[in-house]
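Internal QA ticket QA-208
Title: Verify multi-chain structure generation after dependency bump
Assignee: T.L.

Test input:
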Amino acid sequence: MSFNKPLNWIALKTLTTKEVVRFTRIWQQTILPPVITTTLYFIIFGNLIGPRIGKMGGFDYMDFIVPGLILMAVITNSYANVASSFFSAKFQSSIEELLVTPTANITILLGYIAGGVARGIMVGVVVTLVSLFFSKLQIYNLTVLVSIIILTSTLFALGGFTNALFAKKFDDISIVPTFILTPFTYLGGVFYSIKLLPDVWQTVSHLNPVLYMINAFRYGFLGVSDISLWTSYTIIIGFIIALFLINLRLISTGYGLRS
Amino acid sequence: MTSAIRIRDLKKTYSDGFEALKGIDLTVEDGDFFALLGPNGAGKSTTIGILCSLVNKTSGSVNIFDTDIDIDFAKAKSYLGIVPQEVNFSVFEKPWQIVQQQAGYYGLEGSVAAERTELYLRKLGLWEKRDSISRTLSGGQKRRLMIARALIHQPRVLILDEPTAGVDIEIRRTMWDFLKQINEQGTTIVLTTHYLEEAENMCRNIAIIDHGSVVHDSSMRALLRGLKTETYVLDVECEAVALAPELHWRNRDACSIEIDVPKGEALNDTFSRLKQQGIKVTSMRNKSNRLEQLFLGLVDDNTSSSSEITGETDK
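Actual output:
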């Protein structure tokens, strides 16, 4: 099978642009809600309850939770973007206009992932700007911050793609976020340090991949983490490679796309 | 002559066990205007789906020009433009976006894509609607938009799956003219349609599929030669018409009749007999769907009828 590089490069640009235009066109549904939700978290957990909790990991509670809340918004939005966009394309059959072209499967996958990453990062940036109203945000390591936000949004965009491939109805793309993504994120150390947990629950928490992302991201802001940074990178990249290969295999066999 | 599409022993069995294609062979020559007919569920859309990679084949081979789809599907797909049966673009996007994005998927640079988008939207009468949300387009406009989208990369083969279903006669005729024009310019066209008149008027060659098998494959002329009678519609003076039964006639309404004339019989004989019976004919035309009689015969009893007609091939 030939791989036409110029063709696929233009196709990738086209698909990525299409995805970015899509979520910015409906910004009231894609950008605004996570900003409002996260602002409420800042107000309730940071301003109202935070001062009563005191320090967490040596930092004001508000400063401690800001990185986790930003990453939570990135995770849910990068996932939701690909899951809903790709499933809608399947549902409306508009995915066919792409499947009938010479665009390679890997280009299709990368295009959708780029759209999810773009939305994740855009929401992350807006939420970060809002958080400046509530905390004195400092950056400890910009490289870690940028790399973790890109890797995390890539991972969850890939997860959204897998979900959309398997989904047969709209309910199927809300099941994973509701029953898996939200519990994993809430129990991934957004609101607390796992060092506060009993030993057994600390061990159980280590099975949660979101814990590694949130701690690495928090390290980028505060310079502290419950987990080794390199362990976090290894786990995130490992999941990305695994999901990327699974998705590529599924799309190549036509799972959920071709009869 | 080069084959644009060459299908050999193509089989498709769906996961529920339904055998949609039972080993079909088809050849569409370069530059042809080819009709693929068959009743609902016959296997036409499955065949088209396999050609454009929306359906995975079970076995058999498909070549688009020099390219086997099992060896280089991307190259094979670059030759094809597809106009599907159902609307399959995002109805929230604008026509120019839909067409221009399609250009991108075929690797056309921005300036070329923009130029061609304008060209085809103008040709298909959609330029004024380029900034409308596609959901608001009429049924005919949506179909024309899909034709513009399919042509954006100037494919060598255009496959149209019932392109005129549900559109009014004026738009249908405009589409016919447009399709004839691009065929004359060298584009091979494969058309599936339920309007047999459309196939008869436009296509040079024809294949009929029924129950997953090709029951007829010849030139349109050869197929129509299989007709034992020709049917004419005669407009007559509006009086009570009662003809002798041996004339094989039917009343259409008070002022027109249909009359079957055996092939080879001179029309003069028929007119003489009409005159003898005092019938004044004011105008006459061919009943346009001659193909319908053959088609129904073939799909009703595809074994016996096909062997009878496939003897004649001047394809």
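Spot checks passed. The longest strand of chain B covers residues 3-13.
Status: verified.
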